[in-house]
Amino acid sequence: MTVDELINRLRSKIVIKNQKALAQMLELKPGAISDAKRRGSVPADWFLTLLRKYGVNPVWLESGQGPVFLGEQTGDLVRVMTADQAAPAPAGRPARDSVRPSADDFILIPVYNVGVGAGPGRVADGEEIIDYLAFKRIWIRKEITGQVDRLFLLYVEGDSMKPTLNAGDIVLVLDVKEESLHDGIYIIRTGEAVQAKRIQRLLDGRIRIISDNKDYAPETVDLDRVQDLAVIGRVVWRAGSI
């Protein structure tokens, strides 16, 4: 594959029009692009950089086959981050270039294929990453207390946590398996079922499992069963349709 072919391929999905824009994406000096053009081939590490930084599928880059991005949300992010033309800013407002984010401003958080049952519970058949969603690093640092590598995303199913959590919502979860429980909404496993429930620790050490939907009765876990309660993580954020 030649450099021109690579630029043309990227241009079809990302607003990138020349060697300078490609160099910016790869964080290379323009001379490195010229050297690759003279050699007549694209270095293999360019494909790796495009995959790691932007989620661009190397198979698609090479052959045009398969999905463009490994995760459509990542692709949407790339189109924003790599656009090299900005509309003129209205009078008195900063130009878009001055506020446009870079790839390093974002962190990709994995989405797992386990649906969280906000009801009787959903059986977890196997936990695999199916996608990634991009979050601003500065937002994560400001809003979330905990290590970034302990964050993951799950989709909600069922109605027992309405109106707080609704079917189709996505929740950001912090792995707190090694921490003591506090009042809040947690992802718990009971047997093979994974559920989202509100947890309340009682003064005598027992734990009450509460559904925000009043049609579902709360359950109290006695002291001799507390250790059997498998906590996957604490819900720290949610998003869903209005």
Query: Whole-number average pLDDT?
Result: 77
Query: What's the CATH H-level superfamily name of the largest domain?
Result: Umud Fragment, subunit A
Task: Calculate the terminal CA-CA distance, rounded to whole Å.
Answer: 46 Å
User: How is the main sheet built?
Assistant: 10 strands, mixed
CATH architecture classification name of the largest domain: Ribbon
Helix share bin: 25-40%
Computed structural class? alpha+beta
Number of DSSP helical runs: 8
Coarse morphology: elongated
Uncertain segments: 72-87, 119-125
As a whole number of angstroms, the C-alpha radius of gyration is 23 Å
What's the helix-strand series?
A: HHHHHHEEEHEEEEEEHE
| CATH T-level topology of the largest domain | Umud Fragment, subunit A
CATH class of the largest domain: Mainly Beta
Beta strands, count: 10
Strand content: 25-35%
Number of domains: 2
SSE layout and pairing:
Layout lengths: L2 H9 L7 H8 L3 H10 L4 H11 L3 H6 L8 H10 L24 E12 L4 E2 L5 E8 H7 L7 E7 L12 E5 L9 E7 L2 E9 L5 E4 L8 E3 L1 H4 L3 E10 L3
Parallel strand pairs: 1-4
Antiparallel strand pairs: 1-3, 2-7, 4-5, 5-10, 6-7, 6-10, 7-8, 8-9
Helix pairs in contact: 2-3
Structure description:
The relative contact order is 0.11. Strand 6 and strand 7 form a beta hairpin. Helix content is 27%, strand content 28%. The protein contains 8 helices and 10 strands. The chain has 2 domains: 3-85, 434 Repressor (Amino-terminal Domain) (Orthogonal Bundle), CATH 1.10.260.40; 104-239, Umud Fragment, subunit A (Ribbon), CATH 2.10.109. The chain is α+β, with helices and mostly antiparallel strands and 242 residues long. Strands 1, 2, 3, 4, 5, 6, 7, 8, 9 and 10 form a 10-stranded mixed sheet that branches.
